Fold:
Amino acid sequence: MAPKTKKQYAEIRRKSKETIKEVALELFAYQGFHSTSISKISKKAGVSKGLMYNYFESKEALLHDILMDAVEVGERLMEENLDKSGSVREQLRALTEATLNMIRDNTHYWQLLTSLAFQPNILEGMSSVLEGKTEATLRRIQNLFEALGAPDPEKEALLYGAVLDGIVMNYFQMGEEYPLEEMKQYILKKFDLA
Structure:
């Protein structure tokens, strides 16, 4: 058997880190961040505790990576759907559809992430980073509503976000029984994006 190349080692490392993050997210969501030890994560991920520390310096660093992955997904979603080629309505429509499709297509992942936000003190160390990202997103959406001529673009952006959040939470709770597609069409109509 030939020795592994640097590329093969890099791929093994990437896969190991992804497995660790997936396992940690599950454990953090179901057992609680504070009740989940590095030992539990390493055992369930099938890696040694030492290797865990090779990839992540602490449980907090692991949580940080998990949350930043989700932030990157959100930022990519914004970039892909809020381009300059479409009208403001087309951009907001695309963002609405992409957001709800993303939740539908990877429900389990987003449910687990959402459950982290409801655990006490879990986001303490990251609150300033997450607040900054949230504020930037809100500003972008607010600018779109301003371009549409909304009388109070900030409140319109907050309402839009709250409606999307509510739809997502109801979908998480009710699953396939929730009329996600109908609600998607309703929100597009409600915000005059259809």
About this structure: Residues 30 and 182 are 31 Å apart (CA to CA). The mean pLDDT is 92. The chain is about 75% helix and 0% strand.
